[in-house]
């Protein structure tokens, strides 16, 4: 596995681009790296909700975004201390619990199947 810049991609920290702030939740992609996929905490939900209320349209009176996002900038500057150290390996039992949680909270749109025509477009 690539370890270059792991201090960034393994950190649970905000990612900032001008007025937009998105939180990088390492635990949401743990399964892709063979790690245990945990169930997000309620704290995760409150962080997302608080960040999504900021936009240029709804906050035109804010001209100093650095001051407005000082808390998130401080967290970004400490990203080395926010590195996820979860080392438990994936197992089917934990993953099944995660899937139950996921299905209860997310809207799923599943495609019934691919046609030969759709497959040919991919190849």
UniProtKB/TrEMBL annotation:
<feature type="domain" description="Aminotransferase-like plant mobile">
    <location>
        <begin position="6"/>
        <end position="102"/>
    </location>
</feature>
<dbReference type="Pfam" id="PF10536">
    <property type="entry name" value="PMD"/>
</dbReference>
<dbReference type="InterPro" id="IPR044824">
    <property type="entry name" value="MAIN-like"/>
</dbReference>
<dbReference type="InterPro" id="IPR019557">
    <property type="entry name" value="AminoTfrase-like_pln_mobile"/>
</dbReference>
<dbReference type="GO" id="GO:0010073">
    <property type="term" value="P:meristem maintenance"/>
</dbReference>
<protein>
    <recommendedName>
        <fullName>Aminotransferase-like plant mobile domain-containing protein</fullName>
    </recommendedName>
</protein>
């Amino acid at each position: 596995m690539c370890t270059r810049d792991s201090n960034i991609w393994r950190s649970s920290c905000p990612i900032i681009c001008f007025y937009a702030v998105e939180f990088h939740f390492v635990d949401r992609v743990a399964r892709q790296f063979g790690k245990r996929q945990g169930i997000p905490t309620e704290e995760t939900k409150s962080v997302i909700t608080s960040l999504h209320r900021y936009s240029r349209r709804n906050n035109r009176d804010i001209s100093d975004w650095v001051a407005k996002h000082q808390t998130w900038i401080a967290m970004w500057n400490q990203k080395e201390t926010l590195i996820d150290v979860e080392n438990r390996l994936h197992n089917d039992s934990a993953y099944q619990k995660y899937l139950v949680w996921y299905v209860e909270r997310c809207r799923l749109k599943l495609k019934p199947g691919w046609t030969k025509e759709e497959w040919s477009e991919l190849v």
